[in-house]
Amino acid sequence: MRKLSRKWKLWGLFFVLMFFAAGATVHTTATDVQAAAKNGFKTEKGKSYYYQNGQKVKGWLTLNGKKYFFNKSTGVQMKRWAKDSKGKRYFYNVNGVKGYMATGWLTDRENNTRYFNPTSGYMTTRWATISNKKYYFYSGSGVAARSVFLTDKKNVTRYFTSKCFMAKGWATNKKQQKRYFDPNTGAMYKGFKKIGSNTYYFYSKSGVMATGWVTNSKKGYKYYFDPSTGVMATGTKTINGKKYTFGSNGVLDTNPGTAAVTGSRTIKNFLANALLPVGKTLYVWGGGHNWSDATRKGISPKWKQWYDSNSSSYNYRYYMDLSEATEQKGLDCSGFVGWSVYQIMQSRSGGPQYTTVSGDIGSLYSGKGMGTIVSQSQLASSNWKLYPGDIGYNSGHTWIVLGQCSDKSVVILHCTPNAGVQISGTPTPSGTYGSQAIKLAETYMSRYPGVSKYDYHESSGNYIRNGAYFRWNRSTLSDPNGYLKKTANQILADLF
After folding, report:
1. What is the pLDDT of residue 260?
2. Average pLDDT, integer, range 421-428
3. Angle, nearest 10°, between helix axes 488-495 and 267-274?
């Protein structure tokens, strides 16, 4: 009996061990199945997770070169937009796509294009250079500017193409309108601009390149731009079978004057040109300071028309409004000198002008390297020696020396308020009137019909002892005619 009882106890112990062994096997198998089911992406209650070895991934995860992000607390996968202190990121949320972080270019269904940093994934805003092209991304949305003109606070306008990059150089739209954008800054050109060796005009509001005839509404200046290339016309051009003359600045010469004396830069030619307006041009306050006359080759027909249309009672004080229309009727003293200098320094109309107020003449011309200034003390030390072509000036008047007489008096050319451009003679340096220069002035001015009509004064003030003088460099004006060694009488005889 005791043996049987012991036997059953052994069998009982065996069955208990077998039961626990089976239970352990079943439990281990269930755990393995559960762990296998918790690897990879899983959707639970509408939210996505990623499991590794049965554990939810939290934070960043890189799979096959793509980056994903899971909430650091809950493990919920981040989808669509995410923002932190450094900026915004975007995680795809499209059917079939697992929500990895966007990098590089991304265009949404509404055709909005953005750019995300290839490394960090942050959305780009404002200016960025990508593959050597410049882009602008709106600061709030990050959307790239596309097919739009943008003007900044400095009134600089730029254009962004249909491919979003900033335009540079020439651009032509569907209407065949041309614009030009600075190759470095992208700034749209406005107004007159030089590109290469050519000048163009771009309308200030639209930036469109001008073609054909264009008129400055404020000053009335006319320009012409080639219909095909937009290049501004200068010099003489034939347009629709008709010849036109344009200055170097492109302004059409609507009032071509009497031809200037041709030839090289010599003292004789300078004086011959300065004689052209004598007896033909009245004194007009501000005359010759307007651009068209200051840069005109030859005398203006309007000067002679104004001269002929007035009576002996003419008084310049009635015409001091300084309007351009009035200024074009004649010359004042500095306008005359500036115009005379232009004739010898420039070969055609429309170049740089030489007209300024009388007191600044010496500094202007010497500053251009054309000559030097001679002071009163220097004149005195030279026994008042003056040369043909010297230009005298003070704060109120300016004049040109035509020649000096043996008594040291000087024949001058100037424009006076008494009448206009004329020949006058100074007294001697000591102040003696009835000088040789005054007699020469009377003789030669008598040849002009207007002398009997207007109040010409053939005797001038003692300008030898008044003001400074500008003296030409010989490299600027040569003297092949020997005028520097001639007397005033000899020079007048040669010119007339």
Report:
1. 61
2. 98
3. 70
Q: What is the pLDDT of residue 102?
A: 84
User: 49, 120, 51, 47: which is closest to 82 by C-alpha?
Assistant: 120
CA 443 – CA 458 distance, rounded (Å): 9
Give a yes or no: residue 170 inside a domain.
yes
Kindly indicate the confidence band of residue 8, based on its pLDDT and cuts at 50, 70 and 90. Answer: very low
Alpha-carbon distance 380 to 3, whole Å? 161
Number of domains composing the chain: 3
Identify the pLDDT of residue 119. 86
Q: Do 235 and 343 belong to one domain?
A: no
105, 137, 169 - which closes a domain: 137
Is 343 in the same domain as 214?
no
> Between the CA of residue 322 and those of 285, 316, 326, 328, what are the distances in Å?
7, 11, 6, 10
Least confident of 39-48, 78-87, 98-107, 280-289: 78-87
What range defines the domain where residue 85 resides? 47-137
Q: Distance of CA 283 to CAs 69, 390, 395, Å?
A: 87, 22, 18
Q: Which two tokens stand for residue 198?
A: 């050519």
**CATH for 179:** 2.10.270.10
Other Cβ atoms within 10 Å of 78 Cβ, number = 18
469 and 384 assigned to the same domain = yes
Q: Specify the length of the chain in residues.
A: 496
Q: Do the Cβ atoms of 320 and 355 come closer than 8 Å?
A: no
pTM of the model: 0.56
Is residue 364 within 8 A of residue 356, CB to CB? The reply is yes
Decide which of 223, 246, 269 is a domain's last residue: 246
For residue 33, give the amino acid letter.
V
Q: What is the residue type of 25?
A: T
**Choice among 29-38, 164-173, 381-390 with the minimum mean pLDDT:** 29-38
As a whole number of Å, the CA-based R_g of the chain is 46
Regarding whether 204 and 107 lie in a shared domain, the answer is: no
The SS3 call for residue 209 is: strand
Clarify whether residues 302 and 208 are in a common domain. no
**Same domain for 82 and 56:** yes
Strands 40-44 and 47-52: antiparallel
If one counts every other C-beta atom within 10 angstroms of the C-beta of residue 160, the result is: 20
